[in-house]
Amino acid sequence: MVTIPIIDLTAFTNGDTITRQNIIKQIYQACHKIGFMYLQNSGISKDLIKQVFNYSKSFFNLPLEVKQKQAWSDEFNNTGYVSLERERLDPNKPGDLKEAFNVNKRAAMEIDASILAFYDSCTELANTVLQAYALALELPEDFFITRHNQQNHTLRLLHYPSLQIPPKPGQVRAGEHSDYGSITLLFQDDVGGLEVQTASGNWIAAPAIPDTVVVNTGDLMQRWTNDMFCSTKHRVMIPSDNKVKQSRYSMAFFCHPNDDTEIACLESCQKEQSPIYPPILAGEYLLSRLQATYGNS
Fold first, then answer.
1. Which pLDDT tens digit goes with each residue over 248-295?
2. Which of 153, 203, 208, 160 is nearest to 186 (CA)?
3. Does the pLDDT at position 1 exceed 80?
4. CB < 8 Å & 24+ apart, contacts of 284-291
5. ∠ at Cα 248 (118, 86), nearest 5°?
6. Do 271 and 171 contact (CB within 8 A), yes or no?
7. What is the mean pLDDT of residues 179-186?
């Protein structure tokens, strides 16, 4: 039975050499086998996370016409409000039963002090994770950090409304998909619904575990590592119990390399097989995936 491991980050940040090496191995195994992990002791304050969840709820409670004034306009900017069913993460299914608000660094500075503080805290946590990834792949420890230093990350506030009417056939809260960037940090409430696909094709639940952050590997990291780290398909399903009457809230922090970073197979990942993917610029890849996501809505 495949399970998503729980890893204590303080053992990496504050541990001695042997403890750190053990955590690096655990992170390598998590990325290699399932592409998902839970991180304990992330260093992000519970109060700050609560403040951002509260901000998110108050934003999504606004009338639709007010939210639409900040509507997402194009994939080049990739910021603003995305309305219900506007996105179709699985192109073969109806639009997703969710609404979202995308924030980049510039927008975070203009919105609210808690949003900016959270964006910065997530950036710091992402850099720690990227450092561990680099060490796990026998690279200089700042290899990934320097290639993410323009902070092209997107903070995405998400709301999955309670269901008042039955969904369309095949419709879910978020269709099956993989993430586009290098890594994603996910903060979720306790309503549940997140599912992760294992290597054998089975779907397993990834419920909220108190005081943890979910971390998963994205497509660009999979390309960089020649499939040694997997960008795993995941989805958000509609609850089959009374929780269907509850809204679900989550916050995803999508880490993306600098646009001009060439994503080419790492030398340490060519030992077992020659490069699978041709080199691509990080910015071009993101653009192509966003166009595919929104182009059919």
1. 999 999 999 999 999 999 998 988 789 999 999 999 999 998 888 776
2. 208
3. no
4. 285/180, 285/219, 285/220, 285/223, 286/180, 286/181, 286/256, 286/259, 287/75, 287/76, 289/180, 289/219, 290/75, 290/78, 290/180, 291/75
5. 90
6. no
7. 97
Residue 162 scores a pLDDT above 50:
yes
Q: Report the C-alpha gap between 45 and 215 in whole angstroms.
A: 17
pTM for this one?
0.95
Enumerate residues 6+ apart whose C-beta is below 8 A from 208: 188, 189, 190, 192
Structure tokens at 246: 């509850």
Residue 119: phi and psi, rounded to 5, are -55, -45
Domains: count for the chain: 1
pLDDT of residue 297: 40
Domain span including residue 129? 6-295
Could you give the CA distance from residue 126 to residue 179 in angstroms, rounded to a whole number?
15
Query: What CATH number corresponds to the domain at position 31?
Result: 2.60.120.330
